[in-house]
TrEMBL record:
Record's protein name: Inositol-1-monophosphatase
One Gene Ontology biological process: inositol phosphate catabolic process
Cofactor entry: Mg(2+)
Pathway(s) it belongs to: Polyol metabolism; myo-inositol biosynthesis; myo-inositol from D-glucose 6-phosphate: step 2/2
Organism: Yarrowia lipolytica (strain CLIB 122 / E 150)
GO molecular-function terms, A-Z: inositol monophosphate 1-phosphatase activity; metal ion binding
InterPro entries (UniProt xref): IMPase, Inositol_monoP_metal-BS, Inositol_monophosphatase-like, Inositol_monophosphatase_CS
Swiss-Prot/TrEMBL catalytic activity: a myo-inositol phosphate + H2O = myo-inositol + phosphate
Family matches, as PROSITE patterns: IMP_1, IMP_2
Length: 296
């Protein structure tokens, strides 16, 4: 598919994301939630309504493309990701934030071809921030996105002053929705290692938890976070952010030691901000050295 085609797809995804954002904002404060697999894995009627709207618009515009959405998948439509052009969609990433009114919920719309993320659009309607990325065409943050005077800036937003090292980093982390078992234990032990379990000496400057994988990827792409480590989320949480980060000079390694090229549906990732490649690789190795266990 040509770059022109991908740019056209990006503009359609942008329109759809802005429409989704308008619905999400209108429903804020009215969210009635249900549990999915457990009491911290939540869904609302708005997640489902927004996904239905997105699916309808995208299948009309691109009838030959496949669709993988969080709520359709939970509803039993769970075919594995194939090489075919596939929209990978989270109608509301950060559903818990949406329910609580914490303004870091977004719509995440990605396109993968040959299982590679090639277009990504992420829209946070509460901040009116739109992140976009197209393979080989760069990535951007557009503020005031839903107004008549949007402001577009190339990512990353800042050239970090510091060398990328584990010791000088702030790292995005999430508990996720698995609060027992292997991944929970691996995260707890690793958080301890990274935060100062060694004779009181901190190994990183701190953690941040935005409550949305797409928002965490966007923050790494912007350069606000140095890295984001996750185990347990899904392709729809990361597909759009993946393109945006890579086009911003970032790097996505596996969430477990030794995995340099994780597939987008591998469910465990270490996303690293823009820096010289040797620094990124040294950071990844150093981070992996602190992982206590192995994510599933
Ligand atoms: C959430 C993610 C979050 C992750 C959770 C969950 P949701 O998505 O973005 O970062 O830790 O496990 O998947 O449920 O809000 O769409």
């Amino acid at each position: 598919m040509s770059n022109a085609d991908l740019t056209h797809i990006e503009s359609v995804l942008t329109d759809v994301a802005l429409k989704a954002g308008a619905i999400i904002k209108e429903k804020t404060g009215t969210a009635v939630f249900e549990d999915k697999k457990n009491a911290v894995d939540l869904v609302t009627e708005t997640d489902k309504a927004v996904e239905d709207m997105i699916r309808e618009k995208l299948s009309t515009a691109f009838p030959d493309f496949k669709f993988m959405g969080e709520e359709s998948f939970s509803g039993g439509d769970n075919a594995a990701l194939s090489d075919a052009p596939t929209f990978i969609v989270d109608p509301i990433d950060g559903t818990t934030n949406f329910i609580h009114g914490f303004p870091y919920a977004c719509t995440s719309l990605g396109l993968s071809i040959d299982k590679e993320p090639v277009v990504g659009v992420i829209y946070n309607p509460f901040l009116d921030h739109l992140y976009t990325g197209v393979k080989d065409k760069g990535s951007y943050l557009i503020t005031n996105a839903a107004t008549d005077s949007p402001i577009k800036a190339a990512l990353p937003l800042k050239k970090p002053a510091q060398k990328l090292t584990l010791q000088s980093s702030i790292i995005g982390i999430e508990w996720g929705s698995d609060r027992v078992g292997n991944n929970f234990d691996t995260k707890c032990a690793t958080f301890r290692n990274l935060s100062g379990g060694h004779d009181g000496a901190g190994f990183c400057h701190g953690f941040r938890s935005l409550g949305s994988a797409a928002m965490n990827f966007s923050a790494v792409a912007a350069g606000y976070l140095d890295a984001y480590w996750e185990g347990g989320c899904w392709a729809w949480d990361v597909c759009a952010g993946w393109v945006i980060l890579k086009e911003a000079g970032g790097f996505v390694a596996g969430g477990n030691k030794g995995v340099w090229n994780p597939p987008v549906d591998s469910r465990k990732y270490l996303a690293v901000r823009s820096a010289p490649e040797a620094e990124q690789k040294a950071f990844v190795e150093e981070f992996w050295g602190q992982i206590d266990g192995s994510l599933e």
